[in-house]
Amino acid sequence: MASIFTKIVNGEIPCYKVAETDDFLAFLDVNPNAIGHTLCIPKTEIDKLFDLDKDLYTGLMEFSRQVAIALEKTVPCKRIGVSVIGLEVPHTHVHLIPLNTMEDVRFIQKVKLDDETFKALAKRINSNLG
After folding, report:
1. How far is it, in rounded angstroms, from Cα 33 to Cα 10?
2. Which of 53, 82, 94, 99 is deepest in the core (most CB within 10 A)?
3. What would the mean pLDDT of 78-83 be, rounded to a whole number?
């Protein structure tokens, strides 16, 4: 069965798209730790990060780097944190989280945003890409 992220890639489930290439997609996490929390995924459904072949792995990391740079230009923060956990969705994904405190990366405290705020934020991050 396709993961929720594959359904997003296929357009079956909407997302707040930040960036997209032929191989990768970045979108806002709908249950974010902080404003701007973004997920970067390969479009190919592969469960574990280290199961990606070398080219897909390095491509995902470079794509994530580009998105993180745009995110840091958009959301005031001390730095962008990176986390790859992958227990909740069996599809490799990189969390990019704007950090001001260590609490922002713990996946305990969440922020709530409305649809219009998500849309505007995704558009602003996208406008700061390379």
Report:
1. 25
2. 94
3. 97
pLDDT at 109 over 90: no
Q: Which amino acid is at 96?
A: L
Give the mean pLDDT of 56-82.
Answer: 98
pTM of the model: 0.95
For residue 22 the two structure tokens come to 């032929």
Q: For the chain, which domains are there?
A: 4-125 (3.30.428.10)
Give the active site residues: 93
pLDDT of residue 28 exceeding 90, the answer is: yes
Q: Which residues of 12-27 are buried (b: 16+ CB within 10 A; e: fewer)?
A: eeebbbbbeeeebbbb
| C-alpha to C-alpha distances, 76 to 15, 25, 34, 90, 128, nearest whole angstrom | 23, 23, 11, 31, 13
